[in-house]
Amino acid sequence: MYMKYEFTDDCRTGIPQIDAEHQHFFKLINEGMEIVEKGAGVELIDPLLKKLADYAATHFDHEEQYMRDHNDPELELQVYTHLQFREALLQFEDMPLTEDSVRQILDFMARWLFRHILYTDTLIGKTQTIEEKPELTEKFLTGIDMIDKEHKVLFDILGEVFDVMHDDTLYDKYDSIVEILGRLKEYTVKHFADEEKYMKAIKYDGLEKQQAAHDAFVDKLEESIKEDGEQLEDNQAEYLKSLFDFLCEWLYNHILVMDTKIPKV
Questions:
Q1: Tens of pLDDT along 146-191?
Q2: Where in the chain is the domain with CATH 1.20.120.50?
Q3: How far apart are CA 173 and CA 170, in angstroms?
Q4: How much of the chain exceeds pLDDT 70, in percent?
Q5: CA angle 105-110-111, nearest 5°?
Q6: Handedness of CA 5, 118, 225, 247 (dihedral sign)
Q7: How far apart are CA 76 and CA 168, in angstroms?
Q8: Which of 20, 135, 138, 204 has its CA 20 to 30 A from that of 31?
Q9: How far apart are CA 236 and CA 143, in angstroms?
Q10: The dihedral of CA 200, 201, 204, 210: what is its sign?
Q11: 207-227 vs 99-119: helix axis angle to the nearest 10?
Q12: b/e per residue, 142-180, with b = 16+ CB within 10 A?
């Protein structure tokens, strides 16, 4: 049984055309997975893969044009990440189409899209930055003691990032930030595991959506820690601000949109 990829609530950008195109993208990916699952043969999947690639190109054009029209300062980053996706697809062009290779291609598309939406697209049009130290206020409470306590720890760790960012006595903040990000990743993995265990125990029907969002966030966090070291060393202030804003925006949105729906039993 294949895993169905779903467009979860915390993937919404609030821009109708972009959200609709993202949903359609996931629909096409799921159609491909269903074809493979039924063993229908590559003669059906090949046209769909071409359709997916063409649809991605069209969607990227729409997204970039929207950002140009609204003078979005993150346009350059968006163009670059879209280019990365196109280049990654080229690596699959000479691969023989088998059941395994098609699954690999579709899985890559789905995971890339999910992470890209969460990390980049949800910030389109949102030029505000986080100016205050993160605080677990009442609106973020789920009413589930274990989850709220662990969210408090995550907010506290983000608060440490905020403190380092605004500590003018620290000229080189590299070591401090790397240490904090390591703890953030470690505790995030623990929290997600605890949260998913609770949802599984109560047979929550939103568990799969939560797992997909959690996996995408951890993947992106690991990628940021591993690949952005050079940026952190070269331009600490800009890098830290961008990363901090993303971490806060994702956590705030995920709690408000998804975690507050988890039933208390």
A1: 999 999 999 999 999 999 888 888 777 778 888 898 999 999 999 9
A2: 9-123, 138-261
A3: 6
A4: 92
A5: 100
A6: negative
A7: 30
A8: 204
A9: 37
A10: negative
A11: 80
A12: bebeebeebbebbbebbebbbebbeeeeeeebeebbeeb
CA triple 146-132-236, angle to 5 deg? 100
- 86-143 pLDDT, tens digit per residue, is 988 888 877 888 878 888 888 888 888 888 887 788 878 765 567 789 999 999 999 9
Q: Which fold has domain 138-261?
A: Four Helix Bundle (Hemerythrin (Met), subunit A) (1.20.120)
Rounded Cα–Cα distance for residues 39 and 48 (Å): 15
- Conformational region of residue 39, where left means phi above 0, alpha means psi within -120 to 50, and beta covers everything else: left
Rg (CA), the chain: 20
Q: What pLDDT was estimated at residue 140?
A: 95
The one-letter amino acid at 170: L
Q: Assign 239 to helix, strand or coil.
A: helix
* Residue 226 DSSP SS3: helix
Task: Answer whether residue 48 shows pLDDT above 90.
Answer: no
Question: In angstroms, rounded to a whole number, what is the distance separating the alpha carbons of residues 148 and 259?
Answer: 10
> Which CATH superfamily, name and number, covers 9-123?
Hemerythrin-like (1.20.120.50)
Query: What pLDDT is recorded for position 3?
Result: 65
How far apart CA 32 and CA 1 sit, in angstroms, is 13
Angle at 109 between CA 108 and CA 113, to 5 degrees: 115
Question: How would DSSP label each residue in 103-127?
Answer: HHHHHHHHHHHHHHHHHTGGGTT--
Give the span between the Cα atoms of 137 and 169, in whole angstroms: 29
pTM of the model: 0.68
